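Task 17 of the worksheet. Students: predict the tertiary structure of the chain below and write it out as structure tokens. Keep your answer in the requested format; marks are given for formatting as well as content.
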Amino acid sequence: MTTGDRPIDFTRGVPADESFPLVELAECAAAVVAGPHGVLVQQYGPSPGFGPLREWLAAQHGVPVDRVLVGNGSLQLIDLLGWALLARGDTVFVESPTYDRTLTLLRRHGIGVVGIPMAADGPELEAFEQALRRQVPKLFYTIPDFQNPSGATTSLAKRRRLVELAARHGFRILEDAPYRPLRYRGSDVPALSELDGERVLHMSSFTKRISPGVRSEAVRARAAERKLALSDGRGFFPEPTDGERFVRLPFCALTPAEIDEGIRRLAVTVEAVREPT
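Model answer:
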């Protein structure tokens, strides 16, 4: 089956199979098992995570080791925060759109979610401050680098303003930053945790990938006719109706040829939807 014939799936932001360094991982696993920590890594460990890994992460981020917690993905850490820092009925501000699984977890904990619209350079601060005048959240959840699913990166000026607002009003910021190492061009912007290491909780990752997103529900239906699978954009917004003209395009598991063909099909689909009926 050629690329032009087979289905193309723009729904899951998973790594490409060919990106896994299988040989290197096997060598690393063998070295760990044969090394001084071989027994330790196979035994039940402490709740904060494997000690040497926490020490390495602490050095990478320039923080004391007792401030490092290792989790099995961001969702486990967000779930733990839901139990440790939040209570049913609390309010959390999130970007709109944002990571759909975070929205699901917060709602399972009985947390009220307030969406802050996104601009090209991060959250719209006027909307953020208007929301603050109505209610101060316990937490602001943000993905400031190559945001999922919009692709936006928060500017330095906005980062500084956000930590100022957090300090003034007494809420915490949860900085979900798995995509910082994936910059293709330009210069790094300081992490929020570098601007305020006390009030900002920083989550990093080894495995994430990112892609920007584009519009509409009608496009999804017509795209399926062309064997092109698209995500339902409504799941990424606190108010689902805000996502009716939004679709996410994770590209990392596709080959370059599949990406080209998928975008071609998407362009044809959009043109078809735009034509008068």
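Marker's comment: The first helix runs from residue 22 to 34. The two ends are 33 Å apart (CA to CA).
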